[in-house]
Design a protein that fits this description.
homodimer; alpha/beta; 6-stranded parallel beta sheet; 22 helices
Chain lengths: ~650, ~650
Amino acid sequence: MDQLVINTIRALAIDMTNEAKSGHPGMPLGSAPIGYKIFKEMKINPKKPDWFNRDRFVLASGHASTLLYSLLHLSGYNICLTDLKNFRQLDSITPGHPEYLHTAGVDATSGPLGQGIAMAVGMALAETVLASKYNKEDYNIIDHYTYVLCGDGDMQEGVTFEASSLAGLWKLGKLIVFYDSNDVTLDGPLNDTSSDNIKNRYESMGWQYLYVADGNDLIALDKALKMAQLEDEKPTLIEVKTIIGYGSQKQGTSATHGAPLGQEDGTYAKEFYGCSLTEFDISNEIYDTFTYQQIKQGEKQYKEWLKQLKKYQEAYPQQANELQELINDDYRINYGDYKLKKTNESQATRNSSNDVINYLATKHPTFMGGSADLSSSTMTKIKDSSLFSATNRLGRNINYGIREFAMAVINNGVILHGGIKIFGGTFFVFSDYLKPALKMAALMKIPTINVFSHDSIAVGEDGPTHQPIEHLAMLRSMPNLNVIRPCDANETFGAWQIAMESKQTPSALILSRQNLMVEANSDYNKVKYGAYVIKEEREKVDCLLIATGSEVNLAIAAATELEKDGYDIRVVSMPCRSLFEQQSKKYQNQVIPTKCKQRLVIEMATSYGWHKYALKDNQILGIDTYGLSAKGSQVMDYYGFNVDNVVKLVKTIVK
Amino acid sequence: MDQLVINTIRALAIDMTNEAKSGHPGMPLGSAPIGYKIFKEMKINPKKPDWFNRDRFVLASGHASTLLYSLLHLSGYNICLTDLKNFRQLDSITPGHPEYLHTAGVDATSGPLGQGIAMAVGMALAETVLASKYNKEDYNIIDHYTYVLCGDGDMQEGVTFEASSLAGLWKLGKLIVFYDSNDVTLDGPLNDTSSDNIKNRYESMGWQYLYVADGNDLIALDKALKMAQLEDEKPTLIEVKTIIGYGSQKQGTSATHGAPLGQEDGTYAKEFYGCSLTEFDISNEIYDTFTYQQIKQGEKQYKEWLKQLKKYQEAYPQQANELQELINDDYRINYGDYKLKKTNESQATRNSSNDVINYLATKHPTFMGGSADLSSSTMTKIKDSSLFSATNRLGRNINYGIREFAMAVINNGVILHGGIKIFGGTFFVFSDYLKPALKMAALMKIPTINVFSHDSIAVGEDGPTHQPIEHLAMLRSMPNLNVIRPCDANETFGAWQIAMESKQTPSALILSRQNLMVEANSDYNKVKYGAYVIKEEREKVDCLLIATGSEVNLAIAAATELEKDGYDIRVVSMPCRSLFEQQSKKYQNQVIPTKCKQRLVIEMATSYGWHKYALKDNQILGIDTYGLSAKGSQVMDYYGFNVDNVVKLVKTIVK
């Protein structure tokens, strides 16, 4: 039966890619036994794919998606034979790479290499935090493994090593990574691009390393898997030697990696396996035994868990209730007692953000996070808590080290796991380093919270390597990301609320290093509209100023000056463009009337993208070069971000 | 004398940061002896800082800039005491982080961690390529080391490991990295964020690992340096134990990392060193001996090299001449015999790009490059050459492995070194992974060439993880980057010419996976204008279509349809926005007349940023969500990129 299922998975990989005339058969053919072993072992309930205490599985090599889809189908998930036949077709639930929320049983979107292992590190982190917090003696409500199947590509990407290093440090013993080691990448033999000793490399990071010499040796795979499970402290990497495109005439070569085998070679391979030559032919024997067992076993495990949960609910009703709300992501926070800052109080929004972080830590039981070694600069520390570590699972501060990318991907994994609200912080300019993770969060529709401080040239002395210019445009141009740049302490509170309450959209909070004054009409409650009038004109609008973040103070100061000279100015604070653009046309026109043709957009960043609101080239005060190293105030002056210059520009525009 | 110089460097680090009231004294105080040893050892000529055969030095920990500036000053470079006093001030040559081209003797801009080692790998790569190609028996015209000083931060960033892995594979034996190992990062003790065994980790990648137990032990430093130089094959990492903020009352803690010591603690430290308490006090003894020796030694080495070069020029005039042109980056290519494609010929621009790559390989002696394991997809292979490797330095194809970020940073290092034209390729969607390197190239004004294929949703079946949406906006919003998206084979040739001839601006070539037809009026020679009229209207413009890349075919096809219905349409091909915006207002208005109010911008990517050319929201046909997995043609239809829809949109706009 083992062999029958494995060969069927291989035959399906051949048929699906042949039918789609595209796809990647090489890895599924080689690693089918590994996938089979994992799925047979996993604690999952195919009929309840989002069971919270299931084992997690990340197919880091997302291109091997046929393997995952076949396993899901054969395990009894809601993915039928027709879905397999529709592989890579419009509106199918079997897209080219696995997509979270799109297909039941897919725990993470994958494809961009390296991120799979790092997401799994996040899942294992979430498991250990929740287990430590909610399990009681005799009640292991949270208790599962996180499995990964990765390939040679993942073993080269830097983020894999950033995250693996943390997994070793944190002793995430329930993380089990199978490394499909087939010595071939797209461009040819692996030794063209790597001479790494993977065993030594992983052991140097505190992992258990196991080796399976033959990927078809089910007994050896089983043994390694059991050894991995037995190891409590060290995460485990199991290197499994396989043959890419196993069974194909071109086996062992990169020719099998990214193109279907075609009919002839496909038949050749099927004959080699000794399985049916008919396309998409799945023996009823498999459904009757393997599929049946998978479903039965899953139901049994699930029911046992439910039984235990019920007792837990009786013994610990408060904790059980809290945990359930966290699992459902509907844990309610009452923000009513938050102390807003008073008008004219001055505070850097990174510090305002820290106030909110510490407030939220008192309100939400699993709110946690940290930074990529910049906690004292990004102000991301929870004061009343300790550092998360191998021996302190309840520490709510996470030091990710100088590993921005891993931080963001790990946090994606934590959110994918569920039960925890997590944030990560770094300097805004280093959003560059983690952009690939932000993109995945936006694509997966998971509400990660990203705190970016030091948000402009006002950083000053650290100079152009540390001054963001194009970064606001980089993030705003991404679909499904709320880029929120609050103008003061109170808008910062509003920004955090949006980030906390968001269900399907990640947030980027863009915060100042320098002090900003609380404006009289700034309104935390209007941040959710994306933009609002923060300073009304007296009668008619001579010029409409649109500003974000730290430039709102400047805009209002300039407006006040201009009023003295008889100009009538409206100032719009626009903390979040995407939210503003989701408002009704009516609201948008109330805030920024189309008939107001005299405008000035003020933002200490690239002008790129602002022509949507500016009607002429001269209606943007931005920065289209890189910055420079000097005192922040001097740099701002240099680029014209002062009252005198704004006044001058407005007068030119109005004239 | 050794100790006097070292303590002076320390005192200067204290004084410079105190004077600036900002900066990072911690690392300079700890690693002053290492910096001193390197500079004393290096083959450099302070009076000829761009001497091509000098040893290169990358201060990977750019925040330790006072160390570098002091060493440059004391070595006799063109950086005077006043420059040191002006540290981090407006218009100074001593900005917060070292900046290439800004300060003589600075071989690379640094600050963003991890990139320093990777740039150095590129420099060492360039050295070995040029040495293999141009050195002759008895003529080691190219023969130098590349030194790096890095810190704990670099040891955590993924890109360090991507690049280090390649350095080991490639046996870059002349790369010598000093690792200032002080066990402290900004957020606290290193063991909060790492339990890596650095020795095993580096040895697993094929490096020589050496250890110096006491960073103040000059003899041990010297011994390690010599051992590193003696090792021909393996790159060397020398881990040197130091104390951050050495001498300060707060030594050994992160408190000394990123803030000046202040007067009191500064005095305390100076007393500890036993050096002058006067600020910026540099003993004449240093100038008279150390500085004098550095200059003399440099001049001597330089003159010896010139002498050798002269003989080389006599013995090998052609090679010498070629090398000189390469060094000056003025090697001339005569493009006259390039065979343009004929109208209506069809070719994917990634394949057109491969034609140009292979053409350039016959024209330019050190043109080389490769991809991050996608050469057969990005079409970046030089057919008549072999793979660069430890045993084949003259191979012009580089397989960087699945390491996009390292690829781009290494290439930055190659260009910083000089003498080589290099390109790197990956899928456009993975430009995310290497964006931090592109930013550094743009900032450093170095003309790297980045080839991005599979440039839109037309990728099809691979789905949203592989379909760029926001990436054009991400790159276009960067200052000093030419983002060129050619519409056919001939524009691709023009795009490559711009990339090859660029002196201070990196290029991103955005190429299609699918076939594109050569348009009758497409003009390789007009790509340099950024945009031009590719299809003239008959009399008056009813609607002006602006398209880039693969959408130009569509725009012209739609225009032809619309003409049948009596509409008069102009089509503008806009391969490069930034170049267009550098043209005269007159030219810009000739191509896109301001009086043409009816427009449609067509691009299979985010609409973000296109309001600069579209005058209303409905004048952009873009994609503001993520893509989907299906046949490319179906995905394009789904998002409305077909003739019928463009015709319909234009009619609505004109009406």
